[in-house]
Every structure is written in structure tokens, then in C-alpha cells.
Design goal:
Translation Initiation Factor IF3
Length: about 80
């Protein structure tokens, strides 16, 4: 499980980087995203709900969000951002 630490970065950078990382992992694999951007959290939730390609757990820490994302299906193409 890899960790992507985007604390202090504003969206859309962390969002785009997370989608790219998700495109590179296989079904059943997980990534952890650390971010201070609530906008990034909301965008990732929208992707989860609309594309149904991952399960997400969001944990609010003292000064950031920890997001655990498990990819639930394959068929991801990084260049087309079809996660």
C-alpha cells in the first residue's frame, strides 16, 4: 500500500495525482492519500460515487484528511482518466 502525501497542496493537483495513482494499481490494491484540501476529498467522493471503481474511507485527523482507497475493478486507462 503506497501513501501519497499532498498535505499543503491545493486542488486540483492532489486530485489528478490520485487518479493517476489509482490508474496504476490493480483491483484489490489500496492507496492512502493524505490531504489538507476538503475540495480534494469531495472530488474523490464524486468519482467514487459516479464511476464505482473504488471503495473509500475518509478519516478526519487533527489537521488533515486520511483517505484509504481500495480499487474494486480494473479497466483503468491513465491517459483517458478512465479509472
Amino acid at each position: 500500500m503506497s501513501t501519497l502525501d499532498f498535505r499543503g497542496e491545493e486542488c486540483p493537483g492532489p486530485f489528478v495525482k490520485t487518479l493517476r495513482a489509482l490508474a496504476k494499481i490493480g483491483k484489490g490494491e489500496k492507496i492512502v492519500v493524505l490531504t489538507t484540501s476538503q475540495q480534494c476529498v469531495e472530488l474523490l467522493k464524486q468519482v467514487e460515487e459516479s464511476l464505482k471503481i473504488a471503495k473509500m474511507e475518509v478519516h478526519r485527523k487533527e489537521s488533515f484528511y486520511e483517505i484509504i482507497i481500495e480499487k474494486t475493478r480494473d479497466g483503468v486507462e491513465e491517459n483517458n482518466i478512465v479509472v
